[in-house]
Give the backbone structure.
Amino acid sequence: MKYWSWYERIWIVAFTAVALALSIFWKDTVFGFTVFLTGILCVVLAAKGNVWTYAFGAYNSATYAWLSYTSGLYGETMLNALYFLPMQLVGWLMWRHKLHGATVEMRRLGAKGVATVAAICALGTGVYGGWLSTLPGQFTPFLDAFTNVLSIVAMILMARRYREQWWLFFLVNLVSVAMWGLRAAAGTENAASMVVMWSAYLVNSVYGMVVWQRGSKTPKPAVAPTPRVGLTLGKFAPLHKGHQYLIETALREVDELLVVVYASDLTDIPLSTRAGWIRALHPTVTVLEAPDGPQETGDDPEIQHRHDVYLANLLTGRGVTDFYSSETYGEPTARALGARNHLVDPARTHIPIRATQIREDPYAARAFLDPLVYKDLIRKVVFLGAPSTGKSTLAQSLALRHDTAFMPEYGREYWETHQQDRRLSPEQLVEIGRRHLEREEALLLSARNILFVDTNAITTFVFALDYHGSALPGLEELARQAESRYDLVFLCGDDIPYDDTWDRSGDVKRHEFQQQVIEDLETRGLRYTLLEGSLAARIDQVERVLAGGGQAEGVR
């Protein structure tokens, strides 16, 4: 009874109690009462569209056929024994593939179907009633025929899940109450229970009409809600946690988010890198790069108009519904787009940072930057050259001057603990290149503006050629990546005195290896600055290049 309504519970209990009382009063049999009870359960479950109606229906059809036979209602006997009973199996088979849980899908006839059913019922009643009237002992042949024909048609409609079955069941039940009332008046055994049962059926048919009327309504085609398309824009120079907070706010509220990234003369970070940050950190966002977008900013109407025209062309066909920003341009931009304006944390109370602050001192503001972004703000300066060309000393000295980190040569550390007869295997050289890069990546997060690096995978690649005549593919790939990884490349000259330690191969070998490094750099077409002279002179050369913003004197 878990899924029964309060009405259904009261209804079935009340009619069961009435039937039991009348059966006792009129001295009906227990058998007659079971026919009544299963009939009630059968029709209530049918009204609910529950497939278990057919289990109770099978028992009811068989027992009701016997009662009808003993009461002289031969039409009812044949209807239940030869039709209703086998139809319980047919109905179950037809319903079982259209169930939601235990409840069947309901449907309705069209006007043409209703007219066809009415014609069949009228014709069937006339023909069948005429034949029943020829049988000896037949009681009320045309009423019997009427209930038989309508019951047959209704059962077919029920098996096929049409709501119009209940119109026919209502008429059948109404006539059956009258028919069994006449038999009760004549003193037929069990007739009283049948009067109550058919009365219950009559009430249930009204309930069935209501339930199936609702369940068979053709659902209106679902109208898909208009997708919300959000937009935000900026130079993201750099992308910081305030920007990310705005993006995440928008993502929670819209179905699709567009982010327009403008070119900028405020930073040396390329447009593609800044757009890449957003793609990496917010992969569900659609990023649009705007290399030719307006650079001017301000509240001037002419500037605003240029931005509006540019956006309209860039966003053609995208249907932006919501615009997100933290700036005063949000309202006019949203208005031009015909979108809702969303102002997110304009006072920077949630994320107290601005891009200007970060550009002034990225290190001080690094807490407001994702590691992915912060690493790209660090200038990577690498020193290459043969052993004993002053790379380590120069890198460490410059790191102290700039209060930043430096990456020592990992290969030397590895060689000291892993070399065998002063040699390393090709696989070990790949491991050196990989671990050096991992350490370098980690140090970027503690660097202040610049990371000075002693050696990279290109030098390790040249060592592989010198040791083994070739390099493994893994090391070749690491060297290829190193070609574009560093902002500045310096080649430390071999003009300084040679430091002849046990782990080195002599000054002659130093000059030979230096030439191999130079040839490799030139083969790669890699620009570099040659550093010569004392440590102080080399530091001065590096500082001038750093101040100039790129490769300068001695560039090859």
Notes: The chain has a mean pLDDT of 86. The CA atoms of residues 326 and 346 lie 4 Å apart.
